[in-house]
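Troubleshooting entry. Yesterday's outputs looked truncated, so today I'm pasting the complete records for two proteins to confirm everything comes through intact. If either block looks cut off, that's the bug. Protein one:
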Amino acid sequence: MVERTTTSQGVNGRVVVAERPADIRNVVLVGHSGSGKTTLVEALAVAAGAVPRAGRVEDGTSVSDYDDIEQRQHRSVQLSVVPMGWDHVKVNLLDTPGYADFVGELRAGLRAADAALFVLSAAVGVEGVSGATLALWEECARVGMPRAIVLTHLDTARADFEDMTETCREILGGGRAESILPLHLPVYGPKGADGHRPVTGLIELLTQHVYDYATGERLETPASEEQREQLEEARNRLIEGIIAESEDETLMDRYIGGEEIDLATLVADLEKAVARGSFHPVLIAAPPPEGARQGLGTVEILDLITRGFPTPAEHPVSATGSGGKAAALACDPAAPLAAEVIRTASDPYVGRLSLVRVFSGTLHADDTVHVCGHGQGDNGDHDADERVGGVSAPFGKQQRPLPQAIAGDIVCVSKLSHAETGDTLSAKDYPLIIEPWSMPDPLLPVAVKAHSKADEDKLSQGLSRLVAEDPTVRLEQNPDTHQLVLWVLGEAHRDVALERLRSRFGVHVDVIDHRVALRETFATQASGRGRHVKQSGGHGQYAICEIEVAPLPEGSGIEFVDKVVGGVVPRQFIQSVEKGVRAQAARGVAAGYPLVDVRVTLFDGKAHSVDSSDAAFQMAGALALREAAGAARINLLEPISEVHVVVSDDYVGPVLVDLSSRRGRVLGTEPVGLGRTAIRAEVPELELSRYAVDLRSLAHGGATFTRAYARHEAMPTQLAESMRDKAGSNG
């Protein structure tokens, strides 16, 4: 790895460039909101010399800051990449939002990374380890992603290192708690006036070295007798954990037999176990004092990343080539190009920017590449050749130009107008597609309309670009309610999406009440007479028809039957009556919702030789249906969804009670392992509009759900009357 000095803008003017995939580490930082991920990235960047001092999201100086929305909300809302150099290795740190609404950015970071740092606040305790953190830990485990844990906020009064470590072992370790062990113990300074002892250093358990960070510099000090006694039990436990994961099966017998295991052997086995994803070390961190260079634990974390985490070559990815044949991607700069768009954004000066992870080959500025994907924005499913603009290294709001990006690296690419998040970039003569990563289904509906005529003209393009940038936003033009609906992950996600629509694409929208697609049907049989007769002034109109309406089973639609005899309604006007009936059915007969599942039988009528017309009989058909509806009992039908909730066992009771309060019918529950239960229920869609928000609050982030349309069924009488009254007052 080399550092090249450039004249481009950037902190310290340096661009870290890796010349081999083996010299790259891609690490994603994940953890609950407020755990200190961005602060840790800042501290690591300062320790590595990437920036002279830590910045803040609040004042826009954060190296992770890319969007002014983050400054206003005082939290990260999107993925950002911070490259730095350490021990001749290029480290790409991917900082992800901790708030659940931005899990799409988190999943993009997981796709781009080869290892993960779980950043957990010791001040939060068990709440920060359970729920969403546990689910994410298990997700990483399923794909074998190496993980380490970093504990932050140890300097707060409620923090307890030992308790937090044991909590991580019990919850995240599951049946293998011995795979989660600390590499260090904190060193506490003298008590302050509030009785709290700040953390000023750490003890390395393997080497038994003590490092004092109190001054902002890492200074080695001799271990006191008290510290040696303190670390003995933890050190023995760590050694046993490392030996248990060693590939040398004789090592445990030698250790039990009293043999002193060589330190170099232990370190090597530790690094191998971490890289394999079978051992998960616990580290500690704190930001540096104001103006200092090194925060607590930053050197140790960077050492673990460069020596223990795997290289991109150890994280294989497959693609599909022409003819649908699977192709393993070689992490080799000389191989054919295969890269994936991790996220897309619009820069006011550069235009569209694509964050790209190169899995194979080398991506050069001004290359012509093949873009292939399954996008849902402007382009839909698409295949196109497109010329790459500039290639650059992202660093906060700045882009540092690069001539190329080799396999394993993460860079920004400009001017890819067709590429969307999840698309594959490949050599134009060797097209490939990498299967996109899974995204959560957005389940919070937000109905919008253009604020003005000028906004209406730009609305379609703005929304499609928003969806192309953020795959966790889904756009729906509802054919029943005629509403434009954005489906998002939560209220914070909604706010960010609407703000981006305004600030990036210049489109202002108003949020309106979301309507659920109800239906109407006849509960009883009834007859109706439609009479449309006007014979004063100008051409006359004359049409009379008699109909009977009867209910049909669900899913039957509108069935029209002709039983006219004797030609009382001429043949050419039978279809006119049917048109009028169907048009009125689409408009509804009670509360303005479409009428379904009825048989309409035309059995009698009258016509005039001169004044009857197609329009007159259409009007008569509509009037006849409305009169029949007035003589019958009309049911309002509401859509029912089958809901599948997976929740921590601790919150099964409250979730079941909540489903019952939503008029839900529980179909069954079953354990799904690791302390979680799956609940199946049928719930009216009217009760699910805010369920994505309410469930998260109810289960403290420890639940997920999916929904699927099941059927329409009759609404309770009292609620149906309320809906009719509301429709009448609006009408």
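Protein two, checking that the full record survives here as well:
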Amino acid sequence: MTFEATRLNKKTTTYKYQTVNNVPVQAVRIQDAFWEPKLKVLHEVTAYDVLHKFENDGALRNFDFVAEGTVGFHSGEPWFDGLVYETIRGISDILAVSPDERLDGKVDGIIEKIVRAQEAGGDGYINTYTQLDRPGQRWGENGGFLRWQHDVYNAGCLIEAAVHHYKATGKTSLLKAAVRFANHMSGIMGPPPKRNIVPAHSLPEEAVLKLYQLALDEPELGAAMQVPFIASDYLELVTFWIRNRGNHEGRYSHGGEYAQDHKPVLEQEEAVGHAVRATLLYTGLTALYLCTGEKLYLETARKLWDNISYQKSHITGGVGAVHHDEKFGANYELPDNGYLETCAGVGMGFFSWNLFLATGESRYIDKLETIIYNIVLAGRSMDGHKYFYENPLVSKGGHNRWEWHSCPCCPPMIMKLLPELASYIYAYDGKGAFVNLYIGSESELLIGDVPVTIKQQTNYPWSGAVGITVTPERKAQFDLRLRIPEWCGQYVIRVNDQAADSELENGYAVLNRVWSPGDRIQLELDMPVHLVEVHPNVKTHADKAAIRRGPVLYCLESVDNEKAENGTILYSREALRVNHMDRKLPLQPVFEKKHDDGFFDGAVLIRTTDADGRPITAVPYPYWNNRSRGTMVLWLKHEHTVRQEGWENKLYRIIE
């Protein structure tokens, strides 16, 4: 790899008050046995699949109807514009690392439709549902319903997609459309005499801040696009959106707790309402701190993250326990059949990443890792074209991935997060580099004035052995921080085959030394099979335990547990349906780990016996429902005494 600091710095959004700097996807090459096959399927199957299905749904034709002046016929839900834009954002990050002329051309064709539709309106506004079905009710006014129409949400998705598309390709056609829309909103939304309009579905907050930062970094783009490109206008708009939320009591457009509009954001201490809206609002709130340094924004975001992580998060990282309104439940309301929308998990991942950038604390990466390896990977089938909307931890056989959905919001969210995975692996600050995720990869960072190449080799998550080669352009002293995951009780670090001393700081083992080209680090993370218990306030999991190894949760599927190896039937299908394999583990089960190269692209399976001596096979939760339809359970009966003390900042912990 060759390092081009100026070029690469333009490819990522870096805010003034970040404690840690992120690395653009273009600066990281993933070379990993676990991730390469999955990202290849994302590029070659999922990206085309999602675009094809939106085209079949009529989502792209909506733009043609607006351009032609047709009224009264809109295909799909009001937020379909936003889902198309989100898909473009994800594909942009794919194109940033893997040029694909065919895929690039398909995106350009969609952008042409979007631009033509926007130009037909003349003022920068575009929302095909409102224009086709509710003309005269923009922003939910004049008897409209903003919470349903998604005018501001769709605008945010367009702006976010445009920034990513520009950074990936250098093209400005979509960016110009986004700037025109952002300028339109800045001109009409704000304190009096402007109009009191804030997003009923969050996401636009962070999206417009990405545009704000781009305007700071490259103000000359305005002249090139021949549109006003004024950073301060965008920051002012987002500040109004955050500060004015909670001042809409009685307005039909929003809906109180459902849209986190029940009180001012900076007075909110508990996550409530629609979980996707909430996590994306908190992501934007954290981004506003990163732009302004206003500590109250960060303090509020941290309180809300703590509430979710230590009182409202399922063990897989899924959030949003309640089906009604797709919302958070009460504290410690975590049923096995919780809703756990894929989109909410992705939103929580983005929120956690922004808090890491703000603080440099590893617990936010721990959460992100759990979400990626469980919720996000479970959300899409291994073959790349079936999807989960919900991710419960138990199924009687009726929960299966779908080819497509009347509300296909989750595939675009998966498309947004997975292509950005490369940018989460490494980070850096003035003292040195962070290794956040253990993924085979190579990257170049500029630490001080020294270009440094970092290369990882590992079979993580199936093995805790990680090899890292550090190659500075010349000898240089700096910190290298290796994240020690929360599940890891013991670890060993060697440098050039010699035991290395390190200090644990914010969850990172810090190695400070003068690094020479080719220095080798061997990190061994102890990765036994653990039984995990939940906080005693979670009544639905009393006398139960979950199986975890490394970052991966394990579950039982009926396909593996109906029969013994000799063919003896252990449970009839009816019994499995009724008690959904509610097997009881012995107090101290003995686990056997088996790496199975034939299990998709390879995985570690876990075998043991239940309290009655019958065999059990547990498979990684993200792989379930890929081989056959059937029953599934994650939490298993296990009688043990739950220790009442030591639960500060914990919701789950290893049974000792």
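Both blocks look complete. Sanity check on protein two: The longest strand covers residues 450-458.
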